[in-house]
Write a structure and sequence with these properties.
Length: 67
C-alpha cells in the first residue's frame, strides 16, 4: 500500500526528471526507461509510471537490461 501511495504522488507531482516504469509489487527492485523493457515481462502486477527520483526514493535501481 505504501508503494502505491508513493507512486500515486509521483504521477501528480513530477519533478521533471523523466518518466520511468515500475512494477507495483513489493518485490520489485528496478525501474525501467521503456514500458516494453524485457525486465518488466514477468511483472504480474500493474506497471506504473513515475519519475527516476521517486523510484530511487523507493529503493529501486535502474534495470540491468537498460544499462
Amino acid at each position: 500500500m505504501k508503494t502505491l501511495f508513493a507512486l500515486a504522488l509521483a504521477c501528480c507531482f513530477s519533478s521533471g526528471d523523466g518518466t520511468v516504469y515500475v512494477c507495483d509489487s513489493p518485490s520489485s527492485v528496478a525501474y525501467h526507461y521503456k514500458r516494453d523493457c524485457r525486465g518488466l515481462n514477468n511483472c504480474k502486477h500493474e506497471v506504473k509510471k513515475t519519475t527516476v527520483s521517486e523510484a530511487e526514493k523507493l529503493g529501486l535501481k535502474l534495470c540491468g537490461w537498460e544499462d
